[in-house]
Amino acid sequence: xxxxxxxxxxxxxxxxxxxxxxxxxxxxxxxxxxxxxxxxxxxxxxxxxxxxxxxxxxxxxxxxxxxxxxxxxxxxxxxxxxxxxxxxxxxxxxxxxxxxxxxxxxxxxxxxxxxxxxxxxxxxxxxxxxxxxxxxxxxxxxxxxxxxxxxxxxxxxxxxxxxxxxxxxxxxxxxxxxxxxxxxxxxxxxxxxxxxxxxxxxxxxxxxxxxxxxxxxxxxxxxxxxxxxxxxxxxxxxxxxxxxxxxxxxxxxxxxxxxxxxxxxxxxxxxxxxxxxxxxxxxxxxxxxxxxxxxxxxxxxxxxxxxxxxxxxxxxxxxxxxxxxxxxxxxxxxxxxxxxxxxxxxxxxxxxxxxxxxxxxx
Length: 362
Ligand SMILES: Nc1ncnc2c1ncn2[C@@H]1O[C@H](COP(=O)(O)O)[C@@H](OP(=O)(O)O)[C@H]1O
Ligand SMILES: [Mg+2]
Ligand SMILES: [Mg+2]
Ligand SMILES: [Mg+2]
Description:
single chain, alpha+beta, Fructose-1,6-Bisphosphatase, Chain A, domain 1, D-Maltodextrin-Binding Protein, domain 2, 2 domains, 7-stranded mixed sheet, 10 helices, globular, binds adenosine-3'-5'-diphosphate, binds magnesium ion
């Protein structure tokens, strides 16, 4: 792995690893009333809030001038009705931040047993994620738990962090605590960390740091999307019907001549799966509800796929624009695939659109 954004990469890997340890341990202890329903009807748990508090606390200490676009904010925790939730989030975040230093971490990052934070400090850290985004300059984007619904089901979710500079994703980190470490052994050990730096490749590392060095070459496996023939392709798609138009995916699969059933998986674990050679196509078509995709749901995943030799665009072939603010703007869906397959998928989408329009006229 190269030295481009080396300091940022070290810090981001450590922050995501801590957040992953936190969320895995929360899952086993999660009780009723530790999940809220947000205004958009989506769930958020003490795990999402605490993970955002941890990552933002670390980033604020190490890169104090960098703004952060984070999914969550602390308003529900500050409300009187949020008192018990708030206490739990503070306890979980402090437990994580005060855990002993791990290989590659520095005490100057404000980590370790003497670094308790106050409630106000942690709520302020969560709210550091309120940045509105920008076309210019540096910013981080954080999804503390991507795939909260998957997390609650005990299935796939991911802690996702990216550094964006002048609207271009430069660094992407995805921690997947429930993803098999080795795709060839689906029932084997779980947990994988994915790291991509623009121009320097995509890698899988162990989720838990091993040995003294942070990322010795032998621990990082370089990822490359293989060439796919149609018989080997299958679509990687959301589990949630409300998030993506899965009936349209079936149509696209038919046009492509894909015979294998789709793989349904929550979160940016789908991008990670594609980057390491599973499936071959990430397909997410809008359901037509006016929903706008959020930058934290795609920033690290899209870079990971690109650095593994793939292409990620919207369904018209336009690049995703990370400079528009917290969202990607008008929603034309997202398509990710290896270089050779991507253009074919765009063609198949065109054809599927025409077929659908024709049927709707009849
Ligand atoms: N109507 C909608 N259309 C598309 N995506 C949506 C959506 N409502 C929520 N999402 C996003 O879908 C993400 C999960 O992705 P996937 O469907 O691939 O598992 C959610 O992330 P969170 O779980 O972080 O809130 C959320 O941001
Ligand atoms: Mg959410
Ligand atoms: Mg998300
Ligand atoms: Mg989330």
